[in-house]
Amino acid sequence: MGYPSQPHDPYGQQPPQQPYGSGPQYPQQSYGSGPQHPTQYGYGYQQPPPPKRSNIGLILVLAIGIPLILLGGCGAVVLIVGDSTRDSVVTEADSPNAVMPSKQPSSAPPKKAEPSTATVGGSISLEGFEGLKMSVTLTKLVDPATGGQYTSVKSGYRLVAVQLTLKNVGSTVYSDSPTNGAFLIDADDQQYQTSFQDVQEGQGFGGQATINAGDSRKGVIVFEVPKSAKLAKFQFALNSGFADQKGEWTLS
Prior knowledge:
Blueprint: H1 56-84, E1 116-119, E2 123-127, E3 133-145, E4 157-168, E5 174-176, E6 182-186, E7 191-192, E8 194-195, E9 209-211, E10 216-226, E11 231-236, E12 247-250
């Protein structure tokens, strides 16, 4: 049994003969008949296709970037909302010498108490520390006063006695020496402190006086002043003279 006759090549050559069953037939292409097909490597082997591009990087960027963008947007919303609750601020630049206004006090501080005035025989209500309140009356002025048995007056000086009545009109106990807050002032504004001399025109407070609420005490306070001094005012204050309010009695 022979092989069938093969068609002749246009150039008079015959293609090689292959026995039946010897392997796959590969197509032959005539010279100049068109584009060449990829070359076959070995029996049944084809050139591998180009590798596919990986999308892992893009997936990671999207997986990380999108949450960050969302978090940033939420943060901006929180800042805007928080800013809306703040007080408005001045955006204009302050001048170098600009002074910020201070907060005004709710109420003005209490003014210092001015001296209350009266004449001989008059009463003045005086206030001291911790609710102390006393009614002070200058009941009598003795000028000149007569010294006691053991009294010794300096040459050129005379004794003056001021009789006071102290009444506790508050709720705090008065416990003080009345002589500590008493002063005598002459027409030349010269001030005199008390003296520990005794006079025949009245009894002193004995140094310390304790007066309960509603009670009263009477006594004289003695001064030693020049014979030529013309007396003008008597001044008295509670808490040994440290209380803010002062009482003044006109003597002439």
